[in-house]
Design brief:
The protein has 126 residues and is of the alpha/beta class. Helix content is 52%, strand content 13%. A 5-stranded parallel β-sheet has the order 3-2-1-4-5. Helix 6 links the parallel strand 4 and strand 5. The longest helix has 13 residues.
């Protein structure tokens, strides 16, 4: 099965009712579960309120000092530290795809990256 790392902003869309991307995030995650892909989240994306649900939907990607080193190597391409940790998590997990709503991250990621809408369409081809 495909391994898909889901960025923090997509999880926030899923969990917070008033966020603009909520319906697409829900559809994407539903389709990903139906397609039986391995959903992943960076351990740095976690919030206590979401832990029980998130652990049922996806697998955490751990973080250690090597992730900080990997993130620092991304800084010239993308200067957002949290995004660079997401990239490090995708690299560590050997994810086939990173799904994010961050247009800048999509354009600079050194791993395959797609928006939620594009990833939802991609899942339909699996």
């Amino acid at each position: 099965p495909k391994r898909i790392l889901v960025d923090t902003n997509v999880w926030l869309d899923y969990f917070i009712p008033l966020r603009r991307g909520r319906s697409v995030a829900i559809e994407f995650l539903r389709d990903a579960c139906t397609a039986q892909v391995d959903l992943l989240y960076a351990a740095t994306s976690l919030a206590w309120d979401c832990l029980s649900v998130l652990s049922q939907l996806a697998t955490p990607v751990p973080c250690d000092l090597s992730d900080i080193w990997m993130a620092s190597r991304q800084r010239e391409l993308h200067s957002d530290y949290e995004d660079d940790l997401i990239i490090a998590a995708a690299i560590r997990a050997q994810a086939d795809l990173l799904v994010t709503n961050d247009v800048k991250l999509c354009s600079h990621a050194p791993v395959a990256a797609m928006s939620v809408e594009d990833a939802k369409n991609y899942l339909a081809t699996l």
